[in-house]
Amino acid sequence: MNGSPVTALPPQPLSPLDGRYRDAVAPLGEFLSEAGLNRARVEVEVEWLIALTDRSLFGSSPLPDADRQRLRALYAYFGPAEIAWLAAKEAVTRHDVKAVEYLVRDRLAALGLDRIAELTHFACTSEDINSAAYALTVQRAVRGVWLPKLREVIAVLEGLANEHADAAMLARTHGQPATPTTMGKELAVFAWRLSRVAHQIEASEFLAKFSGATGTFSAHIAADPDVDWPQLSREFIAGLGIGLNPLTTQIESHDWQVELYDRARHAGGILHNLATDAWTYISLGYFAQIPVAGATGSSTMPHKINPIRFENAEANLEIAGGLFATLASTLVTSRMQRDLTDSTTQRNIGVAFGHSLLALDNLLRGLDSISLSRDVLLADLDANWEVLAEAIQTVVRAEIAAGRSSISDPYALLKDLTRGHRVGRADLAAFVQGLDISDAAKARLLALTPATYVGVAERLARR
């Protein structure tokens, strides 16, 4: 059979986000799925109907509260019946937004509200509905699902930074032993970086347009030139809880999306850096991994616990970053007044945030399953006394500047002592004792150890 399966599999999810990892990303599906988008489209259509009737336009009158509630129930209780109805209708219309319009009209008839049916989708182009629906769904997904998960990671990092604020460790710049720091301070760096970007994302705009076929309100003015349609549009969009882009082509220009996805990609880059650093600290033995009962670390090597959470996060952040970059670079352009490249592109917003959310989930699990090995940190420090060369040459320079030393080139002096050589405590002590510096300066240097040469790292970590 040339390797072909004997029988075909039943329908399977193509994306791991809808299969293996579904539970981790399911909350995003409430908003960034096709059903979530259609629910938001229905919401926009219904609220536009209510806005028009509230102003008694074209012979209408404000709806009674009972009718408003029944209309709003169309999106509040949007479910399987509506999903199936829209799928069947779109198969005929070949147009997703038109199918939503027909759904609203159908439900108006069922509610006995045929009298306002012609106000459904009134003077709207599809992108009026779409731009508002995307702004709503992305806003709700980011603020309600993705950002809280990012904030969880930040909170865990802040907790670890505080817990390990005083845990001195050897720094490695360019992979080489360098001036010591503390594990808490290094984790605090990531918390601080992520907090900045999270704050920027929290301040993001979520914009829509609601100005007709080419952004000119032409049909609106033709229907009633006495209405201040731009003001009505502004009030309507503000009532949805999003912002208005007042100057557009047929589409909202997506610049707010470009800004958001660039910031999400930036956050992902910082998280990727966190994942690779955590992986490296585990490989150095700085962090021990906490065994999970019943879990297999390696299929052939029973002693191993692989840092799979950080590796999974790293890979998913790379996928998410690539998608966010594609979204940003594609959505920034639309040929003249409209083309459809954005339509397919925007359907992948949920995929990008899904991989990012999955990475955040794995980082949380990974950070929760490691324990700091302070004895390893101290042993590493004690094996690298040469890192005090910086302190010695800086103190000598200060002594020269103060007129208390005649040494001509302190940097060269320390370079000759330490570069390419391993020096220990006794070597450095003897070297310091022979320096032409004050007794007070010698005392400060002789009191230093790699574990105490951390400056104000602990205080910085506890910020």
From TrEMBL:
One Pfam family assigned to this protein is ASL_C
Span of domain Fumarate lyase N-terminal: 20-313
- What sequence ranges are listed for the domain Adenylosuccinate lyase PurB C-terminal? 334-454
Q: Does the keyword Cell wall biogenesis/degradation apply?
A: no
Question: Per its UniProt record, what Gene3D superfamilies does this chain match?
Answer: Fumarase/aspartase (C-terminal domain), Fumarase/aspartase (Central domain), Fumarase/aspartase (N-terminal domain)
PROSITE patterns named in the record: FUMARATE_LYASES
Family matches, as InterPro entries: Fumarase/histidase_N (IPR024083), Fumarate_lyase_CS (IPR020557), Fumarate_lyase_fam (IPR000362), Fumarate_lyase_N (IPR022761), L-Aspartase-like (IPR008948), PurB_bact (IPR047136), PurB_C (IPR013539)
Q: Which UniProt keywords apply?
A: Lyase, Purine biosynthesis
Name a GO molecular-function annotation: lyase activity
Task: Tell me the pathway.
Answer: Purine metabolism; AMP biosynthesis via de novo pathway; AMP from IMP: step 2/2; Purine metabolism; IMP biosynthesis via de novo pathway; 5-amino-1-(5-phospho-D-ribosyl)imidazole-4-carboxamide from 5-amino-1-(5-phospho-D-ribosyl)imidazole-4-carboxylate: step 2/2
Is this entry keyworded Repeat? no
Function recorded in the entry: Catalyzes two reactions in de novo purine nucleotide biosynthesis. Catalyzes the breakdown of 5-aminoimidazole- (N-succinylocarboxamide) ribotide (SAICAR or 2-[5-amino-1-(5-phospho-beta-D-ribosyl)imidazole-4-carboxamido]succinate) to 5-aminoimidazole-4-carboxamide ribotide (AICAR or 5-amino-1-(5-phospho-beta-D-ribosyl)imidazole-4-carboxamide) and fumarate, and of adenylosuccinate (ADS or N(6)-(1,2-dicarboxyethyl)-AMP) to adenosine monophosphate (AMP) and fumarate.
Could you tell me what this protein is called? Adenylosuccinate lyase
Its gene?
Answer: purB
